[in-house]
Design a protein that fits this description.
Blueprint (H helix, E strand, L loop, with lengths): L1 H20 L1 H20 L10 H19 L1
Helix pairs in contact: 1-2
Length: about 70
């Protein structure tokens, strides 16, 4: 969470430079940023990664068991 917060702040700082150069490019970039945020918030956050390391380990163990069952 900390790393994603830093990246959000840095990206917003970088976008101020875009606004100084071309305001229309800034608004297009903000639109894409908002579309990506909405997509992540509504759909992808539950499908991209496991919630914790334990859940990811459990998913990997199940996948490994499935592979071993299919090869025998």
């Amino acid at each position: 969470m900390f790393t994603s917060g830093i990246s959000l702040v840095l990206s917003l700082i970088a976008m101020t430079g875009v606004y100084a150069f071309d305001p229309s490019a800034f608004f297009m970039t903000m639109g894409l940023f908002l579309i990506g945020g909405v997509y992540y918030g509504l759909y992808s956050r539950n499908k991209l990664v496991a919630s914790s390391a334990e859940e990811e380990f459990a998913m990997l163990s199940l996948a490994e068991q499935d592979l071993n069952a299919n090869t025998n």
